[in-house]
Fold this sequence. Notes:
Blueprint (H helix, E strand, L loop, with lengths): L7 H9 L7 H23 L9 H35 L7 H42 L5 H26 L5 H33 L1
Amino acid sequence: MEFTKLSCEEFVTRLASKDPVPGGGGASALVGAVGTALGNMVGSLTVGKKKYADVQEDILALKAKADALQEDLFLLAAKDAEVFEPLSKAYGLPKDTPEEQARKAEVMEKALRECSAVPLSIMEKCCEAIELQREFAQKGTAIAISDAGCGVILCKAALQAAALNVFINTKSMADRAFASEIDRRADAMLETYCSLADQVYQSVAARLR
């Protein structure tokens, strides 16, 4: 099922059910896309305004990047559901004999790597989106500045939520060196981009008070 093709109501209802997908990863990607779109809207409201003619080319370039990010995040929402299915099946594999135990461990490790790779990619896209929000807030029309602030805080939430979906999978990996490297990459993004998102949010809030 293409979850991004569902209505908002259908997606939320499915998310609230006991079905394994969509889950936190897909929700993170969707929230990231919504946050990105809010900045994109600031750009749309800026294009064509005489007051902002000197930054119009910059805004158009930002909007093109935002369009691409939105599409990437939709695809990652679908991918997250796709990679979770093998993991859910792996948990049910038999482990009565040493051979079965070895086979289950092998399948689990592969599935865990794939299930951590997708939310890590979602995090990377959210970092890019946060950088775009900073520019939309700086260069976009002042009448929609609050939307850039809303967008950046949603992208931060998506970043943090995706990180949890990374960590729940790396925690179960047998290859601890590989898991530690993935965790390190996720931690680095959190440290840099949560702070940046807060700075953008605070700068927007200061302009509104």
